[in-house]
Amino acid sequence: MDYTGSKIILPRIISDGMVLQRNTDVKVWGWASAGEAVIVRFMGKVYHASANDSGEWFVKLESAEAGGPYDMVIESEESIEKITVKNILLGDVWLCSGQSNMEMKMDSLKDTYPEEIARCCNDYIRHFCVPVKYDFERPEIDFEAGSWEAANPERVLDFTAAGYFFALKLFDKYRIPIGLINASLGGSPAEAWLSENALKEFPEHYESAKKLSNRDYLDKVLREDEATTEAWYSALNQDDKGIENNTASWQNIKVPSYWEDEGLGSFNGVVWFRKEIEIPCTLADKPARLVLGNIVDEDTVFINGIETGTTPNQYIPRKYSIRKGLLKEGKNTILLRVVNTSGKGGFYKEKPYQLEIGDSIIDLIGEWQYVIGAKRSPMPEPAFVQWRPLGLYNGMIAPVTDYAIKGFIWYQGESNTKNPGEYENLLKALVSDWRQKWKMGNLPFLYVQLPNFMEASEIPMKSNWAELREAQRRVLSVPGTAMAIAIDLGEWNDIHPVNKKDVGTRLALAAMRTVYGDKTIVGYGPMYKSYRIDGNKIILSFTDTGSGLVVKKGERPGAFAIAGADRIFVRADAELTGNDVAVWSEKVSHPVYVRYAWADNPMDANLYNSEGLPASPFTTE
């Protein structure tokens, strides 16, 4: 930054309410006029700095124990300017990053955790949300916005949910302040979070980043992307005649369902849905909430002809507020315009579809009417420039690499399942890259293994999700890493499972064991260690068995598959033998390989330790 101003400027991360990392030297930095002398006063000590020719200055605060609150005064020796940063705590600071399952806010989980939100009042858990920004030309030096917020029923709604429950568990255990810096973005692949140097190990991703570093090329991509999207929607809207149809010609359909599965055919475009409901006089003219599960891909809702809300993509649960007076006694009409851009269109199954009026619930599952408004070919895939390699590192990570932290928590991988073969190297590169950038040694890196997702399967199958979980497991060979296993925390029909409390708790258990050195804690579920062949059986050994291996929901371990040298896997029998598992099948007389929970959503993955933590999926290959 070429600083030419006359004022002292601080980065946004150094601001009121911040949590500084305890028990280490802490860098405080900013900008001022070239050559200007800056004084920093903190905890009874005085630190001096001088701005260089570019206006940059910094001081290193001495290591201090957890505590606070404190104030910090930063002033110029040559002017009367003085900045006071108030309400500072010293504790442990964790960078939270990844894609949507880390980004997912407590606000999205108000129905799941109402009590936790209501009683949330902890000034010692604080959160800084990094604004979304990508840059392919150079690393940013500051964020455009952001502030530290303490956990309370209002502010916690903006916290990363997984991060909040992680922090809560650590605070309950150690009673020290916890700071969360949330730099995450839905849909982002791992390569978007790598620096330029780290990307050089991956030529294809590096070339992609270099192309986008040309501003003219980037602008061209953005213009073409916008024009393509606008043209698709313009043609769709012009063709859409659904609302003009006489409702007498509308046909019946089950909701929830995908319209392709209901015989409408395979197409993209617009389908209108309509349902009439009776509202008794006791519920009329009252405010209400319309809950419509998840809809693929976009929807707009009309209540009695009045537009009530819209949602732009399938990943956001539909929860629409209906103002007082809109619902009337007698017949009321709910009308939905659903736009599907690609793949199957319709409604997620096994989600709530209901109208809530006070304590009364009107079930909306069942028969609706529909009419096809317009059919189109799939919308061309957007450029998703924000997810391209390098951009998110430069925009969301680089500005905070000088801020001392305790470690990282990472929840990501869904967007890399298209090419799971490279993920092990990508994640190892990211761990190394970030550690180098922070210059604080081998900072702990804790991450979540992908949960179960999609249709459940009880037979061995080819699975990119299983391959990526295996890649994540193999990253444990990197010192200072730990993995929270989530194979039992997913939802078959939702890539965004709502159980973030157990995710955060398991990350915290891993931290207690790996980072805080608490040997009394069982930090992880059973991990495959080794195997030996005994006749027609393979005997598996595990680490992290805690008080012992157990089978949950069943008499014997399930979800095992076995193969000979031909690698043709078949479903296997298994039994516990102490803290080992014996696996065999009558179909494989000379076994060589075993897999466990090898499917997108494995059924009968019931191997746990006595402490209730599930075993990681694995292959012995």
From TrEMBL:
Domain of life: Bacteria
GO biological process: carbohydrate metabolic process
Keywords carried by this UniProt record: Hydrolase
MF (Gene Ontology): hydrolase activity, hydrolyzing O-glycosyl compounds; sialate O-acetylesterase activity
Keyword Hydrolase included in the entry's annotation: yes
Domain Sialate O-acetylesterase: 391-510
Pfam families listed in its UniProt record: SASA (PF03629)
Keyword Oxidoreductase: no
Protein name, UniProt field: Sialate O-acetylesterase domain-containing protein
